[in-house]
Amino acid sequence: MAKLERFRKIYSQGTLSCKEIWIDTETGVQYFAYNNGSGVGLCPLLDRDGKPVIGNALDFE
Q1: Which of 21, 39, 41, 50 could form an S-S bond across to 11 if both were Cys, CB 3.0 to 4.6 Å?
Q2: 38 in a domain, yes or no?
Q3: Which residue, among 42, 35, 30, has the nearest Cα to 19 in the 3D structure?
Q4: CA separation, residue 35 to residues 22, 25, 30 (Å)
Q5: CB of 11 within 8 A of CB of 32?
Q6: Three-state secondary structure string covering 22-35
Q7: Which strands form 40-44's sheet, in the order they lie side by side?
Q8: Biggest alpha carbon distance in the chain?
Q9: Phi, psi of 8 (to 5 degrees)
Q10: What is the pLDDT of residues 1-38, one digit of tens each?
Q11: How many CA atoms lie within 13 A of 26 on its CB side?
């Protein structure tokens, strides 16, 4: 099996102001990224208890 990249984009919406969800393939932590052309923001997705949202990168193939 081929080695996965460390970070992988699993969701994307928009073109000029792009919203994306990335997953860390080693830890499973998901991140929200927002890019509006002049800057970018990145933060982990959190559940209602404030814990990081965890997933499996293979679930998003």
Answers
A1: 21
A2: yes
A3: 35
A4: 13, 22, 17
A5: no
A6: EEECCCCEEEEEEE
A7: 7-13, 18-24, 30-35, 40-44
A8: 38
A9: -140, 135
A10: 566 689 999 999 998 899 999 999 999 999 999 999 88
A11: 3
Collect all residues with Cβ–Cβ distance below 8 Å to 17 and sequence separation of at least 6.
34, 35, 36, 37
Which residue is associated with the tokens 């984009």? Answer: 9
Domain of residue 32: give its range: 7-60
Does the model's pTM come out above 0.70?
Answer: yes
Residues in the chain: 61
Distance CA 18, CA 11 (A): 10
The alpha carbon of residue 44 and the mean position of all alpha carbons in its chain are separated, in whole angstroms, by: 8
Q: Is residue 11 part of a domain?
A: yes
Is 2 among the domain residues?
A: no
- Name the domain count of the chain: 1
